[in-house]
């Protein structure tokens, strides 16, 4: 993997993602935060239903668009994180980063959370 991309994956925080619509399969691009915890990549959001998550559950392949320190479009696959212990561990770090520690239980119960595998590495 390119050194600039590897650096961006450890320092950048905002990306765009392009997912296929859950029902229509039409492409949908949005801006979203991502997290790199010890080399594992995650995407989450505030508690509640999210279209991007429904799209990823229906069609796990998506495009992970780096856009801050480097421009790169990376093929990726999302795996929903449903195990409560894993969700709690990951989301505890997310809420700490977002200064929302008092909302951990709400995040664990109803925030979308996927682990991202970049196709071809990382």
> Which percent band covers the strand fraction?
35-45%
CATH C-level: Mainly Beta
- Overall domain count: 1
User: CATH homologous superfamily?
Assistant: Electron Transport, Fmn-binding Protein, Chain A
Overall structural class, as computed from helix and strand content, comes to: alpha+beta
CATH topology, by name, is Pnp Oxidase, Chain A
Order of helices and strands: HEEEEHEEHHE
Rounded mean pLDDT is 95
Gross morphology: globular
CATH architecture: Roll
State the distance separating the first and last CA atoms: 8 Å
Please work out how many helical segments DSSP would assign.
4
Record the strand order, biggest sheet: 2-1-5-6-7-4-3
List low-confidence stretches.
none
Using the CA coordinates, give the radius of gyration.
14 Å
Number of strands: 7
Main sheet characteristics: 7 strands, antiparallel
Estimate the helix proportion, in percent: 25-40%
Protein name: Nitroreductase
GO molecular function, one term: oxidoreductase activity
InterPro entries: F420H2_quin_Rdtase, Split_barrel_FMN-bd
Pfam families: F420H2_quin_red (PF04075)
What can you see in these coordinates?
- The protein contains 4 helices and 7 strands; from the N terminus they run αββββαββααβ.
- It is of the alpha+beta class.
- Strands 2-1-5-6-7-4-3 form a 7-stranded antiparallel beta sheet, with helices on both faces.
- α3 crosses α4.
- The protein is globular.
- The protein starts with a helix and ends with a strand.
- InterPro entries: F420H2_quin_Rdtase, Split_barrel_FMN-bd.
- It holds the Pfam family F420H2_quin_red.
- GO terms for molecular function: oxidoreductase activity.
- This is Nitroreductase.
């Amino acid at each position: 993997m390119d050194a600039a991309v590897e650096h961006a994956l450890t320092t950048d925080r905002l990306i765009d993602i392009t997912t296929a619509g859950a029902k229509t399969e039409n492409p949908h691009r949005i801006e979203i935060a991502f997290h790199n915890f010890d080399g594992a990549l995650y995407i989450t959001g505030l508690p509640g239903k999210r279209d991007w998550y429904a799209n990823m559950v229906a069609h796990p392949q998506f495009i992970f668009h780096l856009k801050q320190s480097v421009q790169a479009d990376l093929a990726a696959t999302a795996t929903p994180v449903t195990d409560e212990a894993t969700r709690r561990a990951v989301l505890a770090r997310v809420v700490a980063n977002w200064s929302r520690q008092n909302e951990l239980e709400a995040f664990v119960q109803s925030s979308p959370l996927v682990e991202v595998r970049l196709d071809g590495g990382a």
